[in-house]
Amino acid sequence: MTMLRLLLYWIINATAVYVTAHVLPGISIKSFTAALVVALVLGLINTLLRPVLIFFSIPFLIVTLGLFMLVINALLLQLSAMLVDGFAVESFWWAMLGSLCISFVGWLLSAVLNV
Questions:
Q1: Domain range holding 19?
Q2: Nearest-angstrom CA–CA distance, 28 and 19
Q3: Distance from CA of residue 65 to its chain's centroid?
Q4: 20 and which of 40, 57, 61, 101 could share a cystine (Cβ 3.0–4.6 Å)?
């Protein structure tokens, strides 16, 4: 992956976070700069912590046919909200809806930009 492509993914994810915060009333963000920081922190958390959580939750993932991933994604979004000033998630349910919205907007932007 080239640096330009990595930078583009970062901006797409930051835009997805920013759009989600403006669409959902339970998620708030101060500025696009905060969204850039959230995207960076969320990317690091997903890279480092997500595989460990997935490994330890394999039985739940099997029983729920993978739907437990929604819970993992929501918890990681809440963790990033705790770590970044200027980004807040009101509750677990807003985090779950927010993670779905971020994923959808990120996917849509990637598809439109052909990344």
A1: 3-113
A2: 10
A3: 21
A4: 101
Convert 55-78 to b/e letters by CB count within 10 Å (16 or more is b).
eeeeeebeeeeeebbbbbbbbbbb
Which residues neighbour 54 within 8 Å (Cβ) at sequence distance 6 or greater?
Answer: 61, 69, 72
- For the residues 100-115, what does the mean pLDDT come to? 93
In angstroms, the CA 106 to CA 9 distance is 9
Alpha helices (H) in the chain, listed in sequence order: 3-23, 32-48, 50-56, 58-63, 68-83, 92-113
Q: Per the structure, how many domains does the chain have?
A: 1
Model confidence at 115, in pLDDT bands (50, 70, 90)?
confident
CB atoms within 10 A of CB 39: 24
Task: Give the three-state DSSP class for 29.
Answer: strand
Amino acid at 72: I
Q: What is the pTM of this model?
A: 0.90
First to last CA, the chain: 11
